[in-house]
Amino acid sequence: MNEPVVLQPDETFVLNVGPQHPATHGVLRVKMTMDGEYIYDAETVIGYIHRMHEKMAENRTYTQYLPNLSRLDYLSAMAYCHGYVLAVEKAAAIEVPERAEYIRAITVEMNRISSHLVWFGAFVMDLGGFSPLMYAFDDREQILDLLEGVTGSRLTYCYFRFGGLYNDIDDDFITGTRQFLKRMRKALKMYRNLVTNNIILMTRLKEIGPISADMCQRYGATGPVARGSGINYDVRRNEAYSVYPEFDFDIPVFTEGDSYARYNVRMEEMEQSLRIIEQGLDKLPDGPVNPEKKIKIVKLPPGDYYTAVEAGRGSFGIRIVSDGDKSPYRLKLRSPTYSNMHLFDEACRGMLIADALAFMGSLDLVIPEMDR
Amino acid sequence: MIIETVRQQLQGLFPASPEAAPITGGLDAQEGQKVEKGGKEAPRVDGIIERNYVERGYHLDVQLAPDQLLAAVGILFDCGFFIETITGVDWIKDQQIEAVYDFSRYDFDLCRIVLRTRTPRSQPVLPTITGIYTGANWHERETHDFFGIVFQGHPHLIPLLLPEDADFHPLLKDFKA
Fold first, then answer.
1. I need a labelling partner for B76 at 20 to 30 A (CA). Which of A5, A124, A257, B117 fits?
2. A98 at B interface, C-beta within 8 A
3. pTM of the model
4. ipTM, 2 decimals?
């Protein structure tokens, strides 16, 4: 099926995929040099929705920058806010109450599930199966409702504050989440029977878009892309931030390196996230969610600081260079999709165009996060 | 521990001052003074500084000259580090632009390394590392967009995130929209 193709570079034509193509899920453009149905070369063009979040950081205070973080990756915004508050708390030595950290972990994991559900639905739809999208969005709706109840927003959350949270969770959230856990476990079983073991899906994904571990290292790929290539790397485990060491969960790793492996990593990850949420609710300590002394103006000591967290798509890093002022001297956002997408150009050479679009879907792209 | 191996290998790049480098937290103390005196501190000497990971988020902080960059990056590649990101910082007071390279590891031998090198602000030129880490391509193009650093030998140094006809560098401190 996937025999190496001898390409004839003298008979090529250029095909523009995007920037308004539905399969790119956002304004992403790929200039493909085609040899018939096969891709001879590809060049990804990004930056169509670049907003210069890094410059924005330089002309506002640390607190004023909080809402920007959820505008990067609108599907797993919670993890990005988490990374930012952790970065500032680490540098400014702000203590966080334990209850707040537990609630942070619970909401981040719920957000991770909702993010993976969007990917799942959209990905299977790219491959031609429409119904799973409807089921996935129905399940995701439960999460959005629960998170809306505590955070006040459905996508662009600004729930975390330096040293704590915007507000405490209530009983409705806890009972609702427990109900959701039951529902989601049943749903995941159904997805496995209906989609994962589906022969059409398997033939579309197996051996398509293989990424080697060596390639991951050269491009700095992280998240499910790296874990689908046999690399056991998850920032939650490797750097053990927040309260993640308290939880018992597995890091799913698949060694095949193809699109089906990446698919399986994300499906397993949802189950592990459910485990984390359940343990979080069981262990949730009592107490305040904000420090006793209110934090008004945040200033970081001069120097530079790096913090990474595991976002929905991989390792999200923040580098803050401070000169002791109220706003950062320089703030760098390291977004995971940026590195993950970069390897597309090299990996898609010699692929059929239909396979390349399946491969692109398996990378789980969120364009605003890539363009920043 | 990989950190010792890497440190020894990187130390080989600084033969002139082997004893000056390994002072832990040396720069932190200097930085404290710098604020009080109002920026009259002498610039940092090239070398390796071991940082407190809990406080800073990385282990080794290496400052080097632009011509040592490729050798250092090659060492990190051979030791199995992956590239996190490349970025710049505009130090307009010193009339210099600093390029910052972040590296990390996939295995559980946690070690984050920062390489930094400085280039004059009037004519910022650095060698490309795309020959070692292919993924540096976009990071270098982005740094060229934002700071105007020219990465010599880069295969495709055209605007990435900025419009294709952009001739401005928005993250420079004297940039006015």
1. A257
2. no
3. 0.87
4. 0.85
